[in-house]
């Protein structure tokens, strides 16, 4: 569902410059309704002002609220250069919802599509369709699968940090506080997510380097309650578990709740990833030992800039820069 139709989400979005001509608005409303989208009609781009759509996943996740704020801030400073629409789905796994939004962008003949994909592989056919329709497509946050892209012969630029390096830094810091050969477990995001795998790989390398023992890995689906359930399971399986390294902060917060439930505060160290606003108090109290800030607001800004620069230079999809790295920083308790 479009954030433009949900002003209470992500801090509330400003009114976009929708087309006020009644007949045009009715046509767009009919089009979106036919695609099954409950959203305000979106404005097709004027000839000299490209339409940029940012498609998010899990609007419930505060990480994407920060990303939204970054996109809004950039647009407020450059509102004469482009039109901005921010859409998204509620759940991390709502692939079908994201595909509907992509189809709407194609039908409305928009110019630039930025997406944080719910699935790193399954979304690719819809994005290829968007590229073939003339949209410039840019991937951010959760990287699309390189092998799948190569098999289709398509270049979809990635804007984001090294998830491996960010997780490795968190793991190194957390594990330095433990005795050698301590037992550690990983709570991972979703099986179809490239960034989930990259973060777990970073954690694994930190575990091996610190001479610790990786006891198990459990899926936490990027959400708090599944993260809590995974942490409870892991700690019951391994009563002397010393650390839980989590693929994002939502799961880390769930893990912290589980640690408190089992009265193991101070005995099980927790690492997270994202540095969402709620982490400040948890880090200060050391209920969570460290996280990584991958600056989602900057990711949005860099992606918008890449899209606009490519559009203004009349670059084709294949001519666009393939990767734009954004910063990631360790945040300590």
From TrEMBL:
Primary location class: other
Entry keyword annotation includes Signal: yes
Domain Periplasmic binding protein: 53-307
Pfam families: Peripla_BP_4 (PF13407)
Protein name: Sugar ABC transporter substrate-binding protein
Family: Belongs to the bacterial solute-binding protein 2 family.
Cell compartments where the protein resides: Cell envelope
Superkingdom classification of source: Bacteria
Keywords annotated in UniProt: Signal
């Amino acid at each position: 569902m479009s954030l433009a139709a949900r002003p209470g989400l992500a801090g509330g979005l400003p009114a976009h410059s929708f087309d006020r001509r009644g007949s045009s608005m009715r046509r767009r409303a009919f089009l979106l309704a036919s695609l099954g989208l409950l959203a305000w009609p979106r404005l097709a781009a004027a000839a000299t002002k490209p339409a940029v759509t940012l498609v998010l996943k899990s609007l419930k996740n505060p990480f994407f609220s920060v990303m939204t704020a970054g996109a809004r801030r950039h647009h407020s400073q450059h509102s004469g250069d482009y039109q901005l629409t921010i859409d998204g789905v509620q759940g991390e796994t709502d692939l079908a919802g994201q595909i509907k939004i992509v189809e709407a962008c194609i039908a409305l003949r928009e110019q630039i599509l930025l997406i944080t994909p719910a699935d790193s592989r399954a979304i690719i056919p819809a994005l290829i369709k968007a590229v073939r329709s003339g949209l410039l497509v840019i991937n951010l946050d959760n990287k699309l699968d390189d092998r799948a892209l190569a098999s289709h012969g398509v270049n979809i630029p990635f804007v984001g940090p090294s998830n491996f390096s960010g997780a490795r830094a968190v793991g190194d810091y957390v594990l330095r506080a433990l005795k050698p050969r301590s037992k550690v477990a990983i709570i991972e995001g979703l099986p179809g997510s490239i960034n989930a795998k990259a973060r777990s790989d970073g954690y694994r390398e930190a575990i091996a380097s610190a001479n610790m023992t990786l006891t198990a890995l459990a899926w936490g689906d990027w959400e708090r309650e599944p993260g809590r359930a995974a942490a409870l399971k892991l700690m019951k399986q391994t009563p002397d578990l010393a650390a839980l390294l989590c693929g994002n902060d939502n799961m880390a917060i769930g893990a912290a709740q589980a640690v408190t439930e089992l009265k193991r505060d101070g005995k099980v160290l927790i690492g997270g990833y994202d540095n969402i606003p709620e982490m400040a108090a948890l880090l200060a109290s050391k209920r969570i030992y460290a996280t990584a800030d991958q600056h989602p607001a900057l990711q949005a800004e860099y992606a918008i800039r890449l899209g606009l620069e490519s559009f203004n230079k009349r670059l084709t999809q294949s001519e666009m820069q393939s990767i734009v790295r954004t910063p990631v920083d360790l945040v300590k308790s």
